[in-house]
Amino acid sequence: MFKESIKMSWNNIVSNKMRSFLTVLGVLIGVAAIIALITIVEGVTGSITS
Q1: Using CA atoms in the order 18, 19, 21, 25, what is the torsion angle rounded to 10 degrees?
Q2: What secondary structure, in 3-state letters, does 19-39 show?
Q3: 25-38: pLDDT as tens digits
């Protein structure tokens, strides 16, 4: 059952390449934005406290 689920998932990823690419791109942009915001907040907090 698990093997069939993996195979079905892989087939859907391969058959919908553009949608898969856009989904991965969206996740990467979201993670990068969160990391950037955390870095900016830490930098501003450090400069205010010093």
Answers
A1: 130
A2: HHHHHHHHHHHHHHHHHHHHH
A3: 999 999 999 999 99
In which residue are the tokens 């698990």 written?
Answer: 2
Separation of alpha carbons 44 and 36, rounded Å: 12
CB 45, CB 38: distance < 8 Å? no
CB-hemisphere CA count at 13 Å for 2?
0
As a whole number of angstroms, the distance between CA 15 and CA 24 comes to: 15
What confidence category does residue 50 fall into, taking pLDDT thresholds of 50, 70 and 90?
A: confident
Cα 36 to the center of its chain, rounded Å: 13
